[in-house]
């Protein structure tokens, strides 16, 4: 499903990326764009997002979706904590907000009434996997901020989606049966999103 989504994002984002390149053609500094540093930032951007989303999905296989949603979105806490460790000035409201989030998360995680209704259950493992995506999510935002200083947002996303597509393709083809992969199979095919089962859903949503 992640590979399908990435394919569609590349296609849907391309016209917008082309429009913003044309619109900002006179202000784009190609000397800053076509550099080794920018290429490495794009690669890091794509890898970080790929890892984050993969861990998010994998976590939900073991633990409650609510746990995954909470633990996978603590990037703000990671950024504030890191800035405090580096002794970078942090607004007092950010500190209070971080404390509130951490306390709320602890209380929320101690809820023993919720149960996982399907799939294999290993709450602790799933929580650890979900939590591991938060630091990379935080770094993703930092890299995004650097890239957005050089290029329009849609261009950054389009290039990142294209790199992610290559990464997902290589990973998926290395673990799957190639006969099923190169098909419209609604479960395993690379073009499964275009099957009768998912076509309308894929195009609309």
UniProtKB/TrEMBL annotation:
Name of the featured protein: Uncharacterized protein
UniProt keyword annotation of NADP present: no
Keyword vocabulary terms for this entry: Membrane, Transmembrane, Transmembrane helix
Transmembrane segments: 6-22, 42-58, 64-85, 92-110, 122-143, 155-176
